[in-house]
Structures are given as C-alpha cells and as structure tokens.
Design brief:
By secondary structure, the chain is mainly alpha-helical. Helix content is about 75%, strand content about 0%. It contains 6 helices and no strands. Helix 2 crosses helix 3 and helix 2 packs across helix 6 (about 110-134). The longest helix has 25 residues, at about 110-134. It is globular, with a radius of gyration of 16 Å.
Length: about 130
C-alpha cells in the first residue's frame, strides 16, 4: 500500500508545527532552570536556533532542500556577524529577553558551528521524513 503524497500546504504546515516545537524546546532549555550544565544550555539552545532557522526558511521556500540549507546558513551567519555591529539602541535591545533570544549579545565562531549543526540535523530529519511519507 502506497501513501498519498503530502500536499505542499500540508508539508509547509508540518514544517511550521515542527519549527514551533523547536522554538518551544529552545525557549524552555534557555529559560526553565532544570539544572543542565551551562554548555548544554548555551550550545543546545544555539543548535535548536539553527534548526529553527532551517524550519522557517523551509516553511517559506519550496524545494530544493539544498537551496533551503544554503539560505538558512546564510541567515544564521548574518545574524551572528550582526553581533559585531554596536549602536546604543541595538545594544539596549540586546539586553532585553527578546533581544537575547533573537540576536544574542556576543559574537562567537562556536555559535556558527552550533547553528550549522542544527541546520544540518534539521535538514537530515526533514529529508528522512519526506522520504518516509513519499
């Protein structure tokens, strides 16, 4: 028995739901004090942030997945590089919870590695799920 292929709208809604689950998990990891070591909280959150970027880009753009991965990587790198830009208003926003979660405060090349890991894992999971439903 073969499955019916998922409609483009159904695929995008699935990606959006998965992305919202990643956002909830990342927010809980960063804000709920469950006693994880600081490295797990920081880099786990960054890995989930990369996965979120992949999910948002994949929700908005059609295939091919290669283009989605490249664009997600460019967005993640741009956000990290944006941390090198400092203005009084931007620095004030970065001190807020929203600013910390969206932009972060300090540039780190390790964040780029974590984002790449999150994007890669999300792309592989997405690929596996798409193959399984086709």
């Amino acid at each position: 028995m073969t499955r019916d292929p998922v409609s483009p709208l159904g695929e995008r809604l699935s990606l959006l739901a998965a992305t919202l689950a990643v956002v909830a998990t990342g927010t809980a990891l960063r804000l709920v004090p469950v006693g994880f070591p600081p490295g797990i909280v920081k880099y786990g959150g960054s890995i989930l942030w990369g996965a979120m970027v992949y999910g948002l880009v994949a929700t908005l753009l059609p295939r091919p997945r290669r283009r989605i991965v490249v664009l997600a990587a460019v967005v993640a790198l741009a956000v990290e590089l944006f941390r090198l830009v400092h203005t009084p208003g931007l620095d004030a926003f970065r001190l807020t919870l929203a600013g910390q979660l969206l932009l972060g405060r300090i540039f780190s090349p390790w964040n780029v590695v974590a984002y790449g890991t999150g994007i890669t894992v999300a792309a592989l999971v997405d690929l596996r799920l798409r193959r399984g439903s086709a």
